[in-house]
């Protein structure tokens, strides 16, 4: 039986929709894994080493923030004792909220993977207050949590706007396209189909993508699809044919040609070179 991607779920037994807890100080090396259906913000104000996300390795240089999407693979290689916080939030948390701004802020923040040059004195108290509020029984807990989350997300986005590499994540059409790709799980490979679902034209969709990430809509879709294919090639023992069918290609040959068109190597060679 083909090995599946390792999936961790830190909320499976508790039934929680939101969790804030100190980063576990004993963590050093972890196996590559992804998380089960939640968005995660990792804040470190102490520690050294590296954090690898989808094959890209980032140096841990505190204070630093990492934003983890549910579909991303990652692993740690930490050399000295880490300190900080982990915030986990499930989509269902927002279903109880009437504050549309909160979800919009999170949606914008999810366009980033790493935030540097942040202020420890501004962020640390917000994580501490969130942790305390979660451990307090109050009829106003939901409102208090939403207010603290808005403050945290807003502060993070302020740091994001100051980063040298800026992305136009305010483009609502691009964000909707990005979200739709994730929802459809790569079942659609025709830009016209995505444009129709978004009630726009392929030309408008292309314009939005070029403005946001300097890629056409089809190239952005290909980039996301190839990234998922690489995850499966690197972190599972699924055959090339199984991966092709999993990603909704009509046959293995089509998948191999598509992969090579964007990477200059076949899936088989990519696995052997990186394995």
TrEMBL record:
Membrane-crossing residue ranges in chain numbering: none
Domain HTH araC/xylS-type span(s) in chain numbering: 171-273
InterPro entries named in the record: AraC-bd, Homeodomain-like_sf, HTH-like, HTH_AraC, RmlC-like_jellyroll
UniProt keyword annotations, A-Z: DNA-binding, Transcription, Transcription regulation
UniProt xrefs under Pfam families: AraC_binding, HTH_18
Tree of life domain: Bacteria
Coiled coil segments of this chain: none
Protein name, UniProt field: 4-hydroxyphenylacetate catabolism regulatory protein HpaA
Keyword DNA-binding part of the UniProt annotation: yes
Keyword Transcription appears in the UniProt entry: yes
